[in-house]
Design brief:
This protein is an alpha+beta fold and about 550 residues long. It is about 35% helix and about 15% strand.
């Protein structure tokens, strides 16, 4: 079976000294290959015998022999070169051959010595004739004059590292005599390696940004699905509320109508009874009136004694019919609706807390911000007020004298949640603060001053420090308070973790990094000496 042909790569069989296909290739002890004549001339012109490629120095000049394998491959490559494929005319934007007449063919090489470009036919002398062996061939370029020094009209062969420009040999001996100059090829290799590193860095940045784009797209898709889910949930909640309201309204209308029917039946009974009394009274009145017109004394007296006594009548002075029967009924129905709304709000708060707990982060107290009287635990999870000031550096980040401390971790994007055990403390402050807050002297906790906080005072007075402050009538005293920050959403929310209920939400626009804020407040004679504890978030189903 014939062995498969292996495509030849010209660069693999190119001498790094003459930049042409190997002629009598030899291998140095370090493993690099050169033309025998090229490496011989290189060592003849140097005081040190070393490899031009890796700069390895040899104690004595190696005895080199022709590498027959490489020589055979080089000859094969030369034959391929001398067997030109079908040549094509130069298209617009391609380099044409400078020696073609009539139809100008596409150039395959440009010569830096001849300063001309050649098609496959006209380049052949450069491959075969000895006079052209020192000519430097490159891939075809249009502006060969750019390869010449404008001052000396010599080929640009060197690179000045001081001025970062290409120069010729005359330049290196004149204006650039004391500058660091290297052959263009050496600088090309180094810059190409650097370019490879830069390219890798750029490629990595591209990949990072493509990954970030994908993450953002996924986040948007998750947000869309979440919004759709919340819209469906809210629609379900509001439909249930509407149904409940409509049901309550129908029940209320039925109750009102029933009360009205009862009132009407009672009124009809009273009217019937009154009309019966009126009939009897009218009959008695008629008899009395007729008797009053009798002039016959005997008849009058006899008839009067024969008349039945006046009919017995009821005392109607206290009998009334109420015209407004529904005030208490409406109030009771609305109260029932309030209970339904509270139940729905509780369900929503519970679902909301489950979602924000998924954004839990590890928060640790920053000792560099802690006031001098605060005592922090070794793990940075607890803070309490001590009896005396500690000898600490009064750095700009430290609160003084207020008993405050910030978390180490700041947030400039995203959603973050943590929980703080307040226990039975009678006073505390919790929330977030922006990075540029004032930390010295008297501090007023307000959003305009960079603080979004709630506090407890006197054991049962909760307030959102919104400026003006908002009282928070909590039905259940929280043992653990959850704090949630949605930076892009502009929200800071607080939750009663045990009651699974929402306490308060600030809405604002954030432009600086935010830090968790804590204050255990004064000890209040030992009543408030317990610490604030950053507790692990316990996710609930």
């Amino acid at each position: 079976m014939a062995s498969p042909s292996i495509p030849l790569c010209e660069e693999q069989f190119q001498c790094s000294i003459c930049l042409d296909i190997f002629s009598k290739p030899v291998s140095t002890p370090c493993g690099h290959n050169f033309c025998m004549a090229c490496i011989g001339r290189y060592w003849d012109s140097s005081d040190v015998c070393q490899c031009p490629m890796c700069k390895e120095t040899f104690s004595r000049r190696p005895d080199l022999r022709v590498n027959t394998f490489i020589a055979g491959m080089a000859e094969q490559l030369k034959k391929v070169r001398l067997s030109p494929p079908e040549e094509l005319s130069a298209e617009p934007g391609e380099v044409p051959c400078d020696f073609c007449t009539g139809r100008r063919l596409r150039a395959v090489k440009s010569c830096l010595v001849c300063l001309a470009s050649y098609c496959m036919t006209h380049i052949q002398p450069h491959f075969g004739e000895t006079a052209f062996r020192k000519h430097k061939l490159i891939d075809p370029v249009i502006n060969l004059e750019d390869m010449l020094c404008r001052k000396h009209e010599r080929v640009l062969e060197l690179f000045c590292r001081d001025d970062q420009i290409c120069i010729c040999e005359f330049c290196s001996e004149a204006d650039h005599r004391i500058h660091s100059t290297v052959p263009l090829e050496e600088e090309w290799r180094e810059k190409k390696a650097q370019l490879g590193e830069t390219e890798a860095e750029v490629q990595q940045k591209i990949q990072d940004r493509l990954k970030k784009v994908q993450e953002i797209k996924q986040a948007v898709e998750l947000s869309r699905l979440g919004a759709q889910r919340e819209a469906e949930d809210s629609e379900q909640v509001f439909r249930a509320l509407v149904r409940s309201i409509e049901r309550s309204q129908a029940e209320l209308l039925e109750l009102i109508e029933e009360k009205q029917r009862v009132a009407e039946r009672r009124a009809e009974g009273l009217i019937e009874e009154l009309e019966q009394e009126i009939t009897e009274l009218v009959k008695t009145h008629t008899e009395l009136e007729q008797l009053s017109h009798t002039e016959d004394h005997i008849h009058f007296l006899q008839s009067l004694s024969a008349l039945p006594p006046p009919p017995h009548t009821k005392d109607w002075s206290d009998v009334t019919v109420t015209s407004d029967l529904c005030l208490s009924t409406v109030r009771r129905t609305v109260s029932q609706m309030e209970e339904i709304l509270r139940d729905e709000l509780q369900k929503l708060s519970n679902a909301e807390l489950k979602r924000v707990q998924k954004c839990a982060v590890d928060v640790t107290l920053d000792p560099n911000t802690a006031a001098a009287k605060l005592i922090l635990s070794e793990d940075g999870k607890q803070v309490r007020l001590g009896d005396k000031r500690q000898a600490l550096n009064d750095n700009p980040e430290r609160f003084d004298p207020g008993p405050n401390v910030l978390g180490k971790e700041g947030f400039s994007s995203g959603r973050h949640y943590w929980e703080v055990e307040v226990g039975e403390k009678t006073a505390w402050d919790l929330g977030v603060a922006r990075e540029s807050i004032n930390r010295k002297g008297k501090i007023t906790l307000r959003p305009k001053n960079g603080y979004w906080t709630v506090w407890l005072r006197n054991g049962n007075e909760y307030q959102a420090l919104a400026g003006p402050d908002i009282p928070l009538p909590l039905s259940l005293k929280p043992w653990t308070v959850g704090v949630f920050v949605d930076y892009e959403g502009g929200q800071v929310s607080f939750y009663n973790v045990e009651a699974r209920s929402h306490i308060y939400t600030f809405t604002d626009t954030f432009t600086e990094k935010l830090y968790p804020f804590f204050s255990p407040c004064n000890n209040d004679g030992g009543k408030n000496a317990a610490p604030l504890i950053i507790s692990p978030v316990r996710h609930t189903d």
